[in-house]
Amino acid sequence: MSDRIGVYPGTFDPITNGHMDIIARAATIVDRLVVAVVVNGGKDTLFSLDERVDMVKADIATLPADVSARIEVRAFDNLLVEFVSDVGATQIIRGLRAVSDFEYEFQMAGMNARLSEEIETVFLMASESNQFISSRFVKEIGRLGGDISHFSSQNVTKLLAARFAEIE
Questions:
Q1: For the domain bounded by 5-167, which CATH number is listed?
Q2: Is the pTM of this model over 0.85?
Q3: How confident is the model at residue 157 (pLDDT cuts 50, 70, 90)?
Q4: 48 is catalytic
Q5: Active-site residue among 68, 94, 135, 152?
């Protein structure tokens, strides 16, 4: 039997505790997880692609070794279903925080299913403590000098503070 490979795509600008919750839980339902950092998700990013990939790798390295060993971080810039197929995956993992996420994710899952019948989208609900966390809010709170240590790793918190100090 071949490995069950899942792909968890995102911009990860920056990676948050909410993302890490989904990554850790997704790693329990697949044999191998590819965290796919999108090159340009139609968003202006605060961090470069390389910086985002490095942030994700650093946070994943804090997971237990038996979990982190089964997670790979890769950048991608093509259609998600093509990337998923290229890495031999059959599942796209998506996190849902609230009902507002569902409509967008439902539409994306439908489009991806039309593009590739072999790929299934799996939704994981955000843990109760992470339902309100978004990269956008973390950046905004950090930009305004607020404490983001409850929403992101110590590494990301420091990187955001340094980036905002550069900008100002």
A1: 3.40.50.620
A2: yes
A3: very high
A4: no
A5: 135
Residue 133 contacts by C-beta under 8 Å, 6 or more apart in sequence?
16, 17, 18, 97, 126, 151
Assess whether pLDDT exceeds 70 at residue 46. Answer: yes
For the chain, give every domain's residue range: 5-167
User: Is residue 150 annotated as a catalytic residue, yes or no?
Assistant: no
Q: What is the structure's pLDDT at 41?
A: 60
One-letter identity of residue 133: I
Burial letters for 66-89: b for 16+ Cβ neighbours within 10 Å, e otherwise?
A: eebebbbbeebeeebbebbbebeb
127 is catalytic: no
How big, in percent rounded to 5, are the helix, strand and coil portions of the chain? 45, 20, 35
d(CA 52, CA 45): 9
Which of 25, 32, 70, 97 is an active site residue? 97
Our answer to whether residue 97 is catalytic in this structure is yes
* β-bridge partners, 71: 33
CB atoms within 10 A of CB 129: 11
**How is residue 120 written in tokens?**
């299934």
pLDDT at position 88 is: 96
